[in-house]
Write a structure and sequence with these properties.
about 280 residues, alpha/beta, Spore Coat Polysaccharide Biosynthesis Protein SpsA, Chain A, 2 domains, 9 helices, about 40% helix, about 15% strand
């Protein structure tokens, strides 16, 4: 998936061409530049450019998922840099037909392991270089997926406009009896390179997380989730340093008070907004 990070995309593609030259590559571009696209096609003969609206990450992923008739598909962000052994390690567990998805460990550009929150941290404990671990979800920055599993559960949920779509997808896979495995092979994920620093993305993150709780968590968890967020939002809408953040937390507090979780803060695309920037 690519959005306005041409230098990173070139590095990403160069590594794929070097390590897996036989691969079929689709670049789903949500903000294509004709000059750059032409240059890219001249440099990488096996790359197909697919232009689509900047609706959501989920929509961009779904556009590319079924492009080629292969038993497995990889989707990854343009700011992910793989290594020579990456795909060999990620493909090995698929000898087990119950495995639907595998994902690597992500390092930042500084070489530090990327954080996915305190509740995800135990997944790394005792994970040896030769091991693997079934987890509740895998980061959508890079996932290898069995195509037949997609045919069972469908693609990513496009109602989750930004954040949480990878979590929800893995939950659906697990509900259908599949496994999602964290593999101790490392890749670099620059992260945040194409993510706008706009308040509406914060609102969407909280909205999506609550949607997942409503679908997959027991009643007591949903009540606790809502209480924690409302408390946090009511405090931060008064104490946040920036006016934009105070406005975002005010909108989050209103959303949880009114329970308007089906209303995204985005318009037709991620370039539209109901929140004043």
């Amino acid at each position: 998936m690519h959005h306005k990070t041409p230098t990173m995309l070139e590095e990403c593609l160069e590594r794929i061409a070097r390590f897996v030259p036989e691969s079929k590559i689709c670049v789903v571009d949500t903000a294509p530049d004709k000059t750059f696209v032409d240059e890219l096609c001249n440099r990488f003969a096996n790359v197909e450019i697919i232009e689509t609206a900047n609706h959501s990450l989920a929509n961009a992923v779904n556009v590319g998922l079924l492009r080629h008739h292969t038993p497995f598909v990889v989707h990854m962000n343009a700011d992910v840099y793989v290594e020579a052994e990456t795909f060999d390690h990620l493909m090995r567990p698929f000898v087990d037909p119950a495995v639907a998805m595998t994902g690597p460990i992500f390092l930042t550009g500084e070489g530090v392991r990327q954080q996915h929150g305190p509740f995800y941290e135990p997944n790394f404990w005792g994970l040896s270089a030769a091991g693997q671990r079934a987890v509740s979800w895998l980061s959508g920055a890079l996932q290898v997926i069995r195509k037949s599993a997609i045919q069972v559960v469908g693609g990513m949920d496009t109602s989750l406009r930004f954040y949480n779509e990878d979590v929800e997808w893995c939950y659906r896979l697990r509900q259908s009896g599949y496994k999602c495995l964290l593999i101790p092979t490392r890749v670099t994920h620059i992260g945040g390179s194409s993510t706008p620093d706009a308040p509406r993305f914060l609102v969407e993150g909280y909205r999506g997380a609550m949607q997942i709780s409503r679908r997959y968590r027991p009643p007591w968890f949903r009540v606790l989730h809502s209480l924690i967020v409302k408390t946090e939002a009511n405090v931060r809408k008064r104490t946040a340093r920036q006016e934009q953040q105070r406005k975002a937390y005010s909108d989050i507090a209103d959303m949880f008070r009114k329970k308007t979780f089906n209303e995204s803060p985005f318009g037709r695309t991620l370039d539209d907004s109901k929140i004043i920037e």
